[in-house]
Design a protein that fits this description.
Elements: E1 4-13, H1 24-29, E2 45-49, H2 56-76, E3 80-82, H3 99-108, H4 110-113, E4 119-125, H5 129-139, H6 143-150, E5 155-156, E6 159-160, H7 166-171, H8 186-198, E7 212-214, E8 220-227, H9 232-254, H10 264-277, E9 282-284, E10 291-293, H11 294-312, H12 315-328, H13 331-342, H14 345-356
Antiparallel strand pairs: 1-2, 1-3, 1-4, 4-8, 5-6, 7-8, 9-10
Helix pairs in contact: 2-9, 5-9, 6-10, 9-11, 9-12, 11-12, 13-14
């Protein structure tokens, strides 16, 4: 069974005002050496990472444990932890003290300065770079659906953006972000990466910000398209669906089935629509490339990966998780409902703090 691991970026917020606070260094100073808590681009953020897990139940336990540990450490530093992909309240972010981050700010200016946005990255094991690239080529049409499911960033600088995932728009400012064309082989993938680096535009290979890429450090594909999810159950659902996508794609490659030939233009439109609508409107259906209700697209994703999920043992969990998510709404829907009920973004942040470690 393929292992799967999760990296989540989370906000540190003031327990009274709900505004982000630049205290990541203080939080991390008290963590033990074996902790997976880490800094991020801005001092208002923390990152947690699970170990590779084959059983989704073990992954769920670890996501919850690390969220709880991070929340505990944050409280000791006088803050709270919030799984929000952007801050609902106004903020002027502070870059972390790190030579590479300082170089990012020098080169990319406001793009780096304003990049206080929290994503969820999912690693799924592959047997080789050849299999990994074959997977990347075949999961491209479905990545916008993962974004729609995870969308959790409707507010930016105290205003409703009209987007479900405004993080995806902020992230899209980086020159190497977004979907890519099919690579065809591992050799072509690595050649393309070297060609991009040779332009001198990117600092290093760590700035290969494709929606999905080969990991530089692990034998995995890394799917990077999602917002951080408000509730840990949705993170686990996202991981299960992503592993199902990877396994389905690998089986199609071994069976000699070609990838969808959709170009970057179509994929960018589908990604924009997913970030705009989330689960509240229509999405671009990856089988027809025409508009369809979000629920129909989500159910098509489940159908697409159901055989792999059944073989892995995650099908029942995925069905239950999707029913719960579609009934409750993703993070963007929850945040807007909270604002409509309370009329106060501080109250929205406070409830999201509670749900983050629930």
């Amino acid at each position: 069974m393929r292992s799967v691991g999760v990296e989540e970026e989370l906000l540190l917020v003031d327990p009274y005002s709900g505004e982000p606070r630049a205290v990541a260094g203080t939080v991390l100073a008290s963590t033990p050496h074996d902790s997976t808590l880490d800094k991020e681009l801005h001092r208002e953020q923390l990152e947690i990472a699970t170990r590779p897990r084959t059983l989704i139940e073990d992954l769920a336990e670890e996501v919850g444990r690390w969220r709880g540990e991070a929340a505990h450490r944050a409280r000791r530093a006088g803050t709270e932890l919030a799984a929000l992909a952007t801050s609902p309240l106004p903020v002027t972010p502070s870059l972390s003290v790190d030579e590479r981050y300082q170089r990012l700010e020098e080169e990319f200016g406001r793009t780096a300065q304003e990049q206080l946005a929290c994503g969820c990255h999912i690693h799924v094991a592959v047997e080789s770079d050849d299999e990994g690239v074959a997977v990347l080529d075949r999961i491209r049409p479905w990545l916008p659906t993962l974004l729609a499911l995870s969308a959790n960033s409707p507010f930016w600088q105290g205003k409703d953006t009209r987007y479900s995932s405004y993080r995806s728009r902020v992230w899209g400012r980086w020159p190497s972000s977004g979907p890519m064309e099919p690579f065809g082989s591992a050799e072509n993938y690595h050649r393309r990466v070297q060609e991009m680096l040779a332009t001198g535009t990117l600092l290093d290979e760590g700035m290969i910000y494709f929606d999905a890429r080969l990991s530089r450090h692990y034998p995995t594909v890394e799917i990077r398209v999602a917002d951080v999810c408000l509730q840990s159950d949705d993170t686990v659902l996202l991981a299960a669906l992503t592993r199902g996508l990877v396994e389905t794609a690998a089986r199609a490659w071994r069976a000699g089935e070609p990838p969808d030939s959709a170009g970057i233009g179509l994929l960018r439109l589908a990604t924009w629509r997913a970030g705009r609508s989330g689960l509240s409107g229509r999405l671009v259906h990856p089988l027809t490339w025409t508009p369809a209700p979000a629920e129909a697209v989500v159910r098509a994703l489940l159908d697409h990966v159901s055989e792999a999920l059944e073989d892995i043992g995650d099908l029942a969990l995925a069905k239950e998780g999707l029913d719960t998510l579609m009934g409750r709404g993703n993070g963007a829907q929850v945040q807007r409902e909270l604002l409509a009920r309370t009329g106060d973004l501080r109250s929205v942040v406070g409830e999201c703090v509670r749900r983050t470690a629930a």
